[in-house]
Amino acid sequence: MSQDKAWNMKLVSQNTLDGFGGVGEGMGMQVTSDGRRIMWLAHEGAPKNFTGVDVSDIKNPTVIVQTELPHDHVRSNSLEVTGDIMAVAYQCWASADQFGVPGLGKEPAGFELFDISTPENPKSISFFDCSGPHSMGVHQLWFADGEYVHIAGGAADFEPHNPKDSQFYRCIDIRNPTKPEEVGRWWYPGIRKGDSEAPPARHPTFDSGFRAHNCNVYPERPDRCYLAYLDGGMFILDISDKSKPKAITSWNPHPPYPGFMHTVLPLLERDLLIVSDESTKDDAGDWPKLTWVVDAREATNLVPISTLPMPPVEEYRNLGGRFGSHNLHENRPGHAYRSNNIIFSTFFNGGVRAYDLTNPYQPQEIAHFVPKAPEGSRAGAVQINDVFVDENQIVYAVDRFAGGLYILEMEVDI
User: Fold this and answer.
1) Is 18 helix (H, G, I), strand (E, B) or coil?
2) How many whole angstroms separate alpha carbon 53 and alpha carbon 34?
């Protein structure tokens, strides 16, 4: 696409991050002691680790720090910021030219805590090691209360039946940030060697694996973890005793749908869940990858009632790269927009889109922004990977390969 496509959302500025504009799915907002606003971004892959962008003036975002990864087959796909501490995930690949092939047994594999009180000079506080012969590290983490980091990762003592099932849920106590300690873990029954349950049946078409993905815990419900588990669907865990997480409900449309459940966003005031499946194949090869609206009034009987509408697949599948659902703005605490009615979602070459869920049976799209193809992108089209909306309703979206950071304003009331 040679020009931007926008409706009720306008581009304020863009920063391609000093030529390293490939960003993963880690975005976090810090407000410093001197009042500056810093957007922290995790990169999709080597050579860069993370970048800090001063967005105090949204018309002139400025890179203030950019760090390097230790080698070319590790990535820091996920990060979270709470106060002046940032948690960064590390996941390894088999080699630099085998992006996506798990680097089992490689290092660094885990997560690192940084002191970002002086954002131009992040200082390592500690590293929590998740490496092991059957681990590729940590893919995603959630850090919202300053006390616990919830991760989807591996461990030295965890051996799955299938190497695609190497990530599970772990809860890490960081109240002493110099000495993180695991306090609890949970995995899909039957995936680990030694489990009494039989291994789960593989997806007949795609088999993305039974791995934990987003593991969100909200201050309004600190006793619940909203856990996506790829082909295993989603779970709500009772973590009131963090040493013994237990599943209280689950929902899984895979199969017949094509798998890779990514995020579970609870709308707690409305007993609704917004659940996304990630598109992982170019040219919509795994269509349909949907974002579901699920009725959670009866926790033991989760019922899908609608999906977020998307433009026709025929219009986007041949533009380049992926098309389908991916990340959501997750209503995290802190310097973030929080709503039980308005949902922001990303769709790779379908851009970033906003929806009104006043009527959850008929979600309505209210705005979108689809950038033109970024210069130098190997996809040949934009691949909007993640979205964050701050408390001032400014929308931040990132491209997976080259476009870097897009800063947007809504042109409709939310």
Assistant:
1) helix
2) 15
Q: Which residue is associated with the tokens 């000079």?
A: 121
pTM for the structure as a whole: 0.98
Q: What pLDDT digit, counting tens, does each position of 236-292 carry?
A: 999 999 999 999 999 999 999 999 999 999 999 999 999 999 999 999 999 999 999
**Within 13 Å, how many C-alpha atoms sit on residue 264's CB side?**
34
Task: State the Cα–Cα distance between residues 214 and 151, nearest whole angstrom.
Answer: 8
Torsion of CA 366, 371, 377, 378, to 10 degrees: 50
Q: Do the Cβ atoms of 255 and 182 come closer than 8 Å?
A: no
Per the CB < 8 A criterion, the answer to whether 12 and 18 are in contact is no
Q: CA-to-CA distance for 95 and 73, rounded, in angstroms?
A: 5
Question: Which string of DSSP letters, residue by residue, matches 131-179?
Answer: --TT--BEEEEE--SSSEEEEEE--TT--BSSGGG--EEEEEE-SSTTS
The percent of residues in the chain predicted with pLDDT above 90, rounded, is: 98
- The first and second tokens of residue 329, run together, are 């703005």
Q: What pLDDT does residue 184 have?
A: 98
Mean pLDDT of the chain: 97
- Retrieve residue 406's tokens: 């897009």
Q: How far is CA 296 from the centre of its chain?
A: 22
List pLDDT tens digits, range 179-211: 999 999 999 999 999 999 999 999 999 999 999
